[in-house]
Design brief:
By secondary structure, this protein is α/β, with parallel strands linked by helices. Helices cover about 25% and strands about 15% of the residues. The protein has 14 helices and 18 strands. About 50% of the residues are buried.
């Protein structure tokens, strides 16, 4: 699957913002790349306080992106090209501009309208203290106080993310029923599935008790166990309801969880046979470039998912993460928090080499894989965007201490020697500036280079389809030196990843199908991956 962040993919009308017509025009590129489908980040009407994840209408299309007819055209033409289409659904919260929230503000305490959200009275003598100590993903308190109709400070509402994103109350039947209708609306229009944003956030512990963050007030959900506002067991009844709804449709409809939780075992709970179908593997994505760490995560993932019969998924990055070319070139190659490694110098050549090796490792593992737009071009993170153009709410909420995620959302370079590199017609300025050095990283430039990152992805995806062993469920580890991953796939294919720091000799009984770097003789150099097949 290929993630499309619509605002940054392709602009058809010259306003500097990507749109659905731009995506429709570029669908043949994605089919040629060799992916099986696309996941489209939110395309809904939104004030864009959080890049479209603050939704003001769950059954519409943002005018920036086009119309419902444009969305229908994308789905229809993607299907004609053999591509599946998954769209984002953002159920944990709405925009503060959503009609539901505006009605809740107007209706006042105790009203059914406020019952759709988590409004609570404050603590303290006059309610001036938040109802509990819950934090926001973007820094600071997870509560904001409202001014009531009479002009006096009133209740507080909870928000796991920005204050413009009030959390819904998923214990409220009206919310459950409304989202049944929202899901049906999109499935009826032909989408093949939905990616569930922030899936572990929906349920909250009864009584909304204080959380124990252990003194670390970062949103480290990979480490949270027993947290009262994340990965609460009551969330699973919601997904069982959705699964039953989706199963009522003819054909295959899939639900994919974004579930950043503390273990593969906790993740498996979301993937039981009557819940969601698959989930992003954040334990894998956020791991360091270290053979032992990666093997442990692979083994834990496969062992945890086997009892529930769910396929694993593997992913290196997304619209929320530092691009691998940059992250793998830093001293800190792990990514427990999206600000990890920020400010460290990155060796782009080293990061590119490791990103190539990591891509081949990901695509060799059993299950599904997700590619974020631009990874197939080897785009680096843009770390030097001017502060005036930054739009990620974490930048403001951190007082500028954390630059946020805009650096991985810079519009794609398609062609030409200068900006906007074919992203927009007529030379329009993109909504985020592209580095001038991206001229060598355009689709046009890399298509002409047989050694480019794009060529590597195209070759790897072709082999993933053509070599049956690479689609098998089986994986068998071989004994290997420290720092080396070596495993069989389906009996006849083999993947070797060298993270040891020195070259290793490849087995002469195998021939190389593909390597992440050019090979000299039978040796695999450091930070490189090779796919092998047994000689006839």
């Amino acid at each position: 699957m290929y993630e499309v962040y619509p605002r940054s993919f392709a602009d058809s009308d010259g306003d500097g913002d990507g749109d659905l017509e731009g995506l429709r025009q570029r669908l043949p590129y994605l089919a040629e790349l060799g992916v099986d489908g696309i996941w489209i980040a939110p395309w809904y009407p939104s004030p864009m306080a959080d890049g479209g994840y603050d939704v003001s209408d769950f059954c519409g299309i943002h005018p920036m992106f086009g119309t419902l007819d444009d969305a229908d055209a994308v789905v229809r033409e993607a299907h004609q090209l053999g591509l599946k289409v998954i769209i984002d659904i953002v159920p944990n919260h709405t925009s503060d501009q959503h009609p539901w929230f505006q009605a809740a503000l107007a209706a006042g305490p105790g009203s059914p309208e406020r019952g759709r959200y988590l409004f609570r009275d404050g603590r303290g003598e006059s309610g001036e203290v938040p109802p509990n100590n819950w934090i926001s993903c973007f820094g600071g308190h997870g509560w904001t106080r409202v001014v009531e109709g009479d002009g006096r400070p009133g209740q507080w509402y909870q928000h796991s993310f920005a204050s413009e994103q009030p959390d819904l109350n998923w214990a409220n039947e009206a919310v459950l029923a409304a989202f049944d209708d929202i899901i049906r609306f999109w499935l009826d229009r032909g989408v093949d599935g939905l990616r569930v944003d922030a899936a572990p956030a929906l349920a909250k512990a009864a009584g909304l008790p204080d959380a124990d963050y252990g003194g670390d007030l970062r949103f480290l959900t990979l480490e949270w166990i027993g947290n009262p506002h994340w990965d609460v067991d009551d969330v699973h009844s919601i997904f069982r309801r959705w699964r039953a709804l989706g199963d009522a449709y003819e054909g295959d409809r899939v639900f994919v969880a974004e579930a950043v939780v503390s273990s593969a075992e906790r993740l498996s709970h979301y993937l039981r046979s009557d819940e969601l179908h698959s989930a992003f593997n954040f334990q894998y994505m956020k791991s360091a470039w270290d053979a032992g760490v990666l093997r442990d995560v692979v083994e834990e993932t496969l062992a945890a998912l086997a009892p529930v019969g769910a396929p694993a998924t593997w992913v290196l990055t997304s619209h929320d993460e530092v691009r691998p070319v940059t992250r793998y070139g830093r001293r800190t190659t792990s990514s427990a928090h999206f600000a990890d490694g920020e400010g460290e110098t990155s060796d782009r050549a080293l990061g590119t080499r490791r990103a190539r090796a990591a891509a081949m490792l990901m695509l060799a593992l059993p299950g599904g894989a997700y590619i974020y737009q631009g990874e197939e071009l080897g785009l680096p993170q843009v770390d030097d965007l001017p502060a005036i153009v930054l739009q990620d709410p974490v930048f403001k909420r951190s007082g500028g201490a954390v630059r946020g995620r805009d650096g991985c959302r810079v519009p794609l370079p398609w062609s030409g020697a200068q900006t906007p590199f074919g992203f927009s017609p007529g030379g329009a300025r993109p909504w985020l500036p592209q580095p001038v050095e991206w001229a060598e990283l355009t689709v046009e430039a890399e298509s002409a280079d047989p050694d480019s990152m794009l060529a590597l992805y195209r070759n790897a995806l072709r082999l993933r389809h053509d070599v049956g062993e690479l689609r098998a469920d089986e994986i068998a580890w071989r004994e290997a030196p420290d720092g080396v991953l070596d495993f069989d796939r389906g009996g006849g294919a083999r993947c070797v990843v060298n993270i040891s720091g020195s070259a290793i000799e490849l087995d002469p009984e195998y021939t190389v199908l593909l390597s992440s770097v050019p090979l000299e003789g039978e040796a695999l150099p450091p930070d490189a991956t090779a796919w092998l097949v047994r000689r006839a």
